[in-house]
Amino acid sequence: MKTIITLILSLIMLKGCSQKDIQDTTITYVATTRGFYQKITIKNQEISINKNRNDEGLGETRKIADNDWNELVNLFSKIDLENFSSYEGPTKKRQYDGAAFANITIHYQDKDYENASFDHGYPPVEIQDFVNKVVDLSKNDKE
User: Fold this and answer.
1) Which residues of 10-37 are buried (b: 16+ CB within 10 A; e: fewer)?
2) Domain-by-domain residue ranges, the chain?
3) For 128-142, what is each residue's pLDDT tens digit?
4) Contact indicator for 119, 95 with CB cutoff of 8 Å
5) Is the pLDDT of residue 56 over 80?
6) Residue 74, class by beta-carbon neighbours within 10 Å (0-12 exposed, 13-18 middle, 19+ buried)?
7) More confident of the two residues 94 and 40
8) Whole-model pTM over 0.85
9) C-alpha separations of 52 from 36, 119, 139 in Å
């Protein structure tokens, strides 16, 4: 019984650390081409969406629902940040204007992790679920 309680408390503590770590993390996703621009910034359970490349501000900002936030935290915890920059997208449509250029930057524990450019809508397999969740949150109007 003590073992079970210890295990449960350990899991709760680990989850708490993940929540705290991501609270201090900034996720920035940018997709751009000649006629399209989208910048998504996530920090402290808030999302900002800017669709105007000439506007340096954050654009529309809203709170992320708790269930979406928990899912994002879970997906974030699965990312190998040390290899983050080496992940490549599965397609090269951006090279002939078939898709917007996209990249994602994660500022975590005073260090920036940036991925190589990939096609908007076709993220690297290793971070596909995470990137898709970030983009989906930008389309989501619920709180």
Assistant:
1) eeeeeeeeeeeebeebebbbbbbeeeeb
2) 2-139
3) 999 999 999 998 654
4) no
5) no
6) middle
7) 40
8) no
9) 9, 20, 16
